[in-house]
Write a structure and sequence with these properties.
Strand order of the largest sheet: 2-1-3
Number of helices: 23
Strand content: 5-15%
Radius of gyration: 35 Å
Length: 636
């Protein structure tokens, strides 16, 4: 990507000043810069940032002319500079003022490296540009989260392209490339055509008739010419025998020996009208080129959404970037060109994301980049990220009556919004709807391992209802599993809390039998119990070490609340004070026993070392006593 720095509207000394500042920011380790006593960070500023800072000189120069100040900045007083900044603060946002202060401070800091000398004093010594501009260090994030309806439909449609459509697109694309590479000659063409027509396996490729959206289709004669190996005019009516050749092909079509597009046997989907058929009804040479682009776009969107990588990092992924990092799939970032000594970074990803990246690399026509042009029409990177997302959404919505994909609601979606949305989900909702409903296991676990600015995790009102509903559904799913296990005579857990839970389950079954006895429910229908279970208020919180059955309205026996001061407005248990072995609300389930058993073994090994300090040994013995109490409670 090329960026030009423009110095127009800057005359005389201001023009020279702008060029010198640009050279300083773009060459911070140049010997001349160091010799002037200016020491900056080793990595240069981006050209875009330099352009933005140079632009701050234009209003500053105009202010000097309006106030009849000296052309030489050394002649300006500190008060002149402060008056200028105060006038801009009234009309500009804090971020713009912050950039302005950066430039003014640089005019003082770089004074020994500037021809004009710069400012003689710092107008705000000891204050950061953020403090001067009244802008917090971490500004409120303005990027909105993608609405849940758009997020889920977009991700599922991308995965459909990657998991279902990709094989067909690659297969047809390879066949189209092979046809284009074949030599053509009209000499002996009729003999080759007759041999092709006589072959029992021959099927005529069909295309959608021009302007037809439904059943209208005709023989794809330009593809047939490539298959037979003849020139493009072979089937022209004006040519000798042209109509005869067309009629011969038409007879095969009439006999039903044809298929839509270049190849048959495309993946079958269920369409919105309930019919089933191939996901594409016209996958010819032009269409497969479009679908290659859409598949690349799907891979890009899917990776952006589920990796939390920035757009610039996505665009820099190379074809050899997929690695195994500490036992998990990861993407290794490319080294920065301007500082090869910087260490490579890794982003942990899930296997589906790794598959998307690998697939994008196979599509890419670029020598190194994974996300780049996928057709010969464009070279290099070949696409704009925002346009790629918009094109994919438009394409899905336009052809979903054939492809069977979900409708994606209209609305703006950018790469930055994917990072914001996934960050919010990892905070609110780790491992629930995405892992269960989408069958993309551990997506949020991997995403949480990648670095992200804290403000990205701020909640979003559009997701509140979705998150609450998903958490409620998951909780009921686990409660149903315990109910079914208890109904089958299996042990659901140990302790007083488990006894109360079994009593609640027994009451549900008794009520269901009463409904069946009165004819209000059918016998053998387990949904009766499940419906009653959903309507019955059973207090339970599922945990890694135990389950808690404390009733918020009547917290009798809750050890965590004994002699505790709860924060104002707090309801529920104090999890950091939980005593699983002693609380009457605790359930030790079978899934918890391996953890407690492993903890007992670990504590015993520590006690057997013989080198512990007395106070450390007493603490470990107390912990071991608690663990033994839990395991004794769980003894059948």
């Amino acid at each position: 990507m090329a960026i030009r720095l423009l110095f127009h509207d800057l005359q005389g000394g201001w023009n020279l000043l702008a060029r010198e500042l640009a050279m300083l920011w773009l060459n911070p380790r140049h010997p001349a810069v160091l010799a002037a006593g200016v020491h900056l960070r080793p990595d240069p500023l981006s050209a875009m940032t330099v352009a933005q800072r140079i632009a701050q000189l234009r209003p500053l120069a105009r202010f000097g002319v309006e106030q009849q100040l000296p052309a030489d900045l050394q002649g300006w007083s500190i008060e002149d500079v402060k008056v200028y900044v105060a006038s801009r603060q009234a009309a500009s946002e804090p971020g713009t003022v912050c950039n302005m202060v950066h430039v003014i401070k640089a005019l003082h800091r770089f004074r020994d490296a500037l021809s004009g000398g710069g400012l003689s004093c710092d107008p705000w010594p000891g204050m950061s540009p953020n403090a001067v501009a009244h802008q917090p260090i971490v500004a409120p994030l303005r990027t909105p989260a993608i609405p849940p309806q758009t997020w889920f439909s977009l991700i599922r449609n991308c995965w459909a392209y990657i998991d279902v459509f990709a094989d067909d697109i690659l297969r047809v694309s390879a066949y189209a490339d092979d046809l284009r590479s074949r030599a053509v000659s009209d000499a002996g063409g009729d003999q080759r055509l007759q041999a092709w027509l006589a072959d029992p396996s021959t099927r005529v490729p069909m295309r959608r008739a021009k302007g037809a959206e439904g059943d209208g289709s005709v023989a794809h004669l330009s593809v047939v010419t490539r298959i037979v190996g003849v020139g493009p005019s072979f089937f022209q009516v004006s040519k000798p025998h042209g109509q005869v050749r067309r009629d011969a092909v038409a007879r095969l079509v009439t006999a039903g020996r044809c298929h839509p597009g270049l190849l048959p046997d495309l993946a079958t989907v269920t369409r919105p009208d309930g019919t089933r058929g191939p996901w594409h009804d016209n996958l010819g040479p032009r269409q497969v080129a479009i679908e290659r682009v859409m598949l690349r776009n799907a891979c890009f969107i899917f990776t952006a959404a589920l990796s939390m990588m920035r757009e610039s990092e996505l665009r820099a992924i190379t074809k050899d970037a997929l690695v195994d990092y500490y036992g998990s799939p990861a993407v290794r970032s490319v080294r920065q060109k301007l500082d090869p000594d910087l260490p490579a970074k890794h982003w942990w990803i899930t296997p589906p994301v790794a598959r998307a990246i690998e697939l994008a690399g196979r599509l890419s026509r670029h020598d190194q980049l994974t996300f780049a042009a996928v057709t010969d029409t464009w070279s290099g990177e070949g696409f704009a990220s925002i346009a790629a997302i918009a094109d994919f959404i438009d394409h899905v919505n336009r052809w979903r009556h054939i492809s069977g994909l979900e409708a994606i609601p209209d609305g703006k979606v950018t790469p930055h919004m994917f990072r914001r949305t996934m960050a919010m989900l990892t905070r609110e909702f780790p491992g629930s709807e995405i892992a269960v409903g989408m069958q993309l296991k551990h997506v949020t676990t991997r995403a949480l391992a990648n670095r992200v600015t804290g403000s990205y995790m701020d909640t979003d009102p559009s997701w509140a209802r979705q998150l609450d509903a998903a958490i409620t559904d998951r909780r009921f799913e686990r409660l149903t599993e315990l109910f079914d296990a208890d109904t089958a005579g299996q042990t659901v857990g140990y302790g007083p809390g488990a006894a109360r839970l079994r009593e609640a389950f027994a009451a549900v079954r008794a009520q269901a039998e009463q409904l069946r006895a009165t004819g209000k429910a059918r016998r053998g229908d387990i949904r009766v119990e499940h419906d009653l279970l959903r309507r019955t208020r059973i207090n339970i919180r599922f945990g890694k070490l135990n389950h808690c059955t404390m009733n918020d309205n009547d917290p009798v026996g809750a050890k965590c609340l004994e002699d505790a001061i709860a924060p104002p407005g707090h309801r529920g248990p104090l999890l950091d004070r939980c005593q699983p072995g002693r609380c009457t609300n605790s359930i030790i389930a079978g899934e918890h026993l391996p953890i407690w058993t492993a903890e007992r073994s670990s504590l015993n090994r520590l006690l057997d070392t013989g080198t512990l300090a007395p106070n450390h040994r007493r603490r470990i013995e107390a912990e071991l006593s608690e663990v033994e109490h839990v395991l004794n409670r769980a003894t059948p």
